[in-house]
Amino acid sequence: MTVGPELRGGHGTCDQGIARAFAFLGKRWNGVILGTLANGPAGFAELTRALPGISESVLSDRLGELARVGLVSRTVREGPPVGVSYQLTDRGDALVPALDALARWAHQNLPADPDM
Fold first, then answer.
1. Greatest CA separation found in the chain?
2. Rounded distance between C-alpha atoms, residue 87 and residue 37, angstroms
3. pLDDT of residue 70
4. Residue burial 21-33, b: 16+ Cβ < 10 Å; e: rest
5. Where is 19: in which H helix or E strand?
6. Could you give the CA distance from residue 20 to residue 17 in angstroms, rounded to a whole number?
7. Quick one: pLDDT at residue 1?
8. Mean pLDDT (10-residue bins), the chain, 116 residues
9. Is the pTM above the cut of 0.85?
10. Three-class secondary structure of residue 9 per DSSP
11. Measuring CA to CA, how many Å separate 44 from each of 52, 70, 86?
């Protein structure tokens, strides 16, 4: 795929949409949470287990942020016990093809060593 002139913005510049997308998705954990929820709805504890290294407070903050921008919805299940489930909205689902493409690119082009 080639980035068209509408995304290049001219010599020495970057499209503002790309810059905004990477500023948001590149924020620690946002893209990874979205990628995890692309597999289907998950509860808070499931997400904590699926994302080793994330603290509960950071996960809570990121889920709130993703919900505020309309990428994730939060559903409270009546109990007992009461539970909360998170899933991608239609806007979040629209990101899945881009996340899949990034994952394929990473598998093909980046070393497996996280310390590169």
1. 59
2. 6
3. 97
4. eeeebeeebbbbb
5. helix 16-25
6. 5
7. 44
8. 52 83 90 96 96 96 96 92 94 96 92 70
9. no
10. coil
11. 13, 18, 8
Sign of CA dihedral 62, 31, 15, 93: negative
Residue 11: per-residue pLDDT: 65
Residue in the block written with tokens 């590149």 = 26
Helix axes 16-25, 30-37, angle to 10 degrees: 80
Written as six digits, the tokens of 93 are: 């689902």
- How far apart CA 74 and CA 64 sit, in angstroms, is 9
SS (H, E, C) 28-94: CCHHHHHHHHCCCCEEHHHHHHHCCCCCHHHHHHHHHHHHHCCCEEEEEECCCCCEEEEEECHHHHC
* Per-residue model confidence (pLDDT) at position 112: 82
Token match 């499931």: residue? Answer: 46
DSSP letter, residue 113 = -
